[in-house]
Write a structure and sequence with these properties.
binds magnesium ion, four-stranded antiparallel sheet, alpha/beta, about 35% helix, about 260 residues, globular, 8 helices, binds adenosine-5'-triphosphate
């Protein structure tokens, strides 16, 4: 479904990804974890072809997207839905219009829009809010709208970049149930998160990145001593952060490899 083969991405003085090889299969639910600056967003941007790798190949649904022409990018992105921490809804459109807009911009017929929009709103449990504007909704409701919009064109892959980052624990858990349901219906899910409790509870595949490298790929656990954005810093966190600092310095001195 998604294949990274020896992928490296360098920024001027930083390493984004460093020789990453990883395969995500159709139907997988994968958590991407790691400290700030590890390369998680870089990984996502490469899948969406927002940035290009310096080395290696990336295949999405069997197609090498590093060779894909610009004209092929809209089709790629139609197959990859995306949800963000800050929802990114259009403030002047209603819930219904926000979701419908995702279909309109790819020129779907009105008939299908009328059919699918109510379906996804119902699936996300927000049918009653169809006529409301984003600022009339709770954070959890806004995220449901954002997910509805991301899946209305039936993408094969759904990427969620910290989708629960702005939500209280109960609401976050409701959103996780929805993502789980979407996954059960066949959509491959890749979710970036710092939420240790969620990762541990879900018991899915966890890919951990540090300094652009995959340091762990296994089922079940978040693996860090605490969610690194938390306040109670433990010895392990300090150890990891110190190690990262040294690696960064070393890389800056050494330049590209
Ligand atoms: N446009 C850019 N120019 C230069 N360096 C960048 C750029 N984007 C990212 N980087 C660097 O690349 C590394 C990986 O960044 P990335 O945004 O992928 O991390 P992340 O894992 O998503 O972090 P976070 O959890 O904070 O979102 C970091 O060192 C970052 O500073
Ligand atoms: Mg990021």
């Amino acid at each position: 479904m998604i294949e990274f083969n020896n992928v490296s991405k360098y920024y001027k003085s930083n390493v984004g990804l460093d020789n990453v090889t990883v395969h995500i299969n159709e139907g997988d639910f994968v958590f991407l974890v790691g400290p700030s600056g590890a390369g998680k967003s870089t990984f996502i941007k490469l899948i969406l072809k927002e940035i290009e790798p310096d080395k290696g190949t990336i295949k999405v649904r069997g197609e090498d997207i590093t060779r894909l022409k610009k004209s092929g990018i809209p089709k790629l992105r139609r197959n990859v839905g995306i949800v963000f921490q800050d929802f990114r809804l259009l403030p002047k459109k209603t819930v219904y219009e926000n979701v419908a807009f995702a279909m309109e911009i790819i020129h779907q017929p009105k008939r299908l829009i009328k059919k699918y929009v109510p379906q996804v709103l119902s699936m996300m449990g927000i049918s009653e809010s169809a006529g409301k504007y984003p600022d009339e909704l709770s954070a959890g409701e806004q995220q449901r709208v954002a997910i509805a919009r991301a899946i209305v064109n039936r993408p094969k892959i759904l990427i969620a970049d910290e989708p629960t980052g702005n939500l209280d624990p109960d609401t976050a858990w409701e959103i996780m149930q929805l993502l789980n349901t979407i996954n059960m219906k066949g959509t491959t899910i890749l979710m970036v998160t710092h939420a240790k409790d969620i990762v541990d509870k879900m018991e899915k595949r966890v890919i951990a990145i540090e300094n652009g490298r995959i340091v762990r790929d296994e089922f079940g656990m978040y693996g860090y001593m605490q969610a690194l954005q938390g306040t109670d810093v433990t010895f392990d966190t300090v150890e990891v952060q110190t190690r990262n600092l040294f690696r960064t310095r070393f890389k800056r001195g050494g330049g590209r490899r």
